[in-house]
Amino acid sequence: MARNVMYSVLVAESPQVARIYDTLATEGPLNAKTRRLVKIAVAAGLASEGAVRHHAHKAVHEGVPLDEVRHAIALALTIAGQDATQAVRWVEEATACNGNGHASGIAVPTIGRDHRGDLQSQRQKIEFESFNRVIANARASV
After folding, report:
1. What percent of the chain has pLDDT over 90?
2. CA-to-CA distance for 71 and 38, rounded, in angstroms?
3. Do 43 and 87 touch, CB atoms closer than 8 A?
């Protein structure tokens, strides 16, 4: 299953760039747990509900203690401020147990559901347009 719509487009439109993206996301001097915590903190700083929920759920599923996930959010709060405050709730919801000790699941990202209404939709549209420009530039350089 594709990570998200933009990643699906990347794979379909430019598989070579997708492989490079995957390499950046999975290799390097940071271990897997640290990479996951960094992704959570960055997502919180960007107030990206879907990314926070996804990475928090994955982190707990991969064995990262919830205290460490919460600490990553707290670190994001010190830099991003108020924009990251909702990430605390998103983490708790995404990692809530379903009665058998396992996280209940990933809540799918919703456009316009957060407190900013249309701003979230506009941000995602801009991100998608920027993403398409990155793909076009990558194609031109290959």
Report:
1. 35
2. 11
3. yes
